[in-house]
Amino acid sequence: MIHFFLLQNRQGQTRISKWYSSFEHEEKKKLQSEIYRILIQRPSKYTNFVEFRKYTLVYRRYKGVFFTICCDPSDNEMSMLEAIHLFVECLDEYFVEVCELDLVFGFYKVFSLLDEFLMGGELQETSKKVILSRMTYLADVEKKS
C-alpha cells in the first residue's frame, strides 16, 4: 500500500502531497522535512530505494523535483519506481514539457491526474493512454460548464 506521495523541489518545498494513511498535521510536516534531508544528502550513485522508519521510500528526481512514494516494505519497489516514471510521463504529455511552475499553478490538474492514477493508496490505472484520455474528458467537461 502507498502511504503518501510527495513532490518536493531542491529547496525542500513540498509542491504536491497526497496522503493515503492517517497522519497528524505536525507529523506530516516532520515527515516531509526528514524525507527531504535524506534525499538531498543521498549520492546519485545509490539506489532509489530507502528504508525509512517502518516504510520504504521509492524516489526519483526529474528536473530538480523529487517524486517520492512511501510504501510498505513488502511492496515491489521496482513497480513503484515504474509508477513514478509513468506519472512523470503523463504529467509531461498533459502539460507539454512540464516544469515546476506547472505543478504550482496547475496543482488541481496534478491532483486530478494523481487521482486517475492512484486510488486509496493502490495503483488504479497503469495505461498512459487511458489516464490521458480521462484527463482530456475532464478538461472538456470543465470547459462546457
From TrEMBL:
One GO term of the biological process aspect: intracellular protein transport
Entry's Gene Ontology molecular function annotations: clathrin adaptor activity
Membrane topology summary: Peripheral membrane protein
Compartments in which it is found: Cell membrane; Membrane, Coated pit
SUPFAM superfamilies attached to this UniProt entry: SNARE-like (SSF64356)
InterPro entries: AP_complex_ssu, AP_mu_sigma_su, APS2, Longin-like_dom_sf
Protein name: AP complex subunit sigma
Organism for this UniProt entry: Amorphochlora amoebiformis
Higher taxonomy: Eukaryota, Sar, Rhizaria, Cercozoa, Chlorarachniophyceae
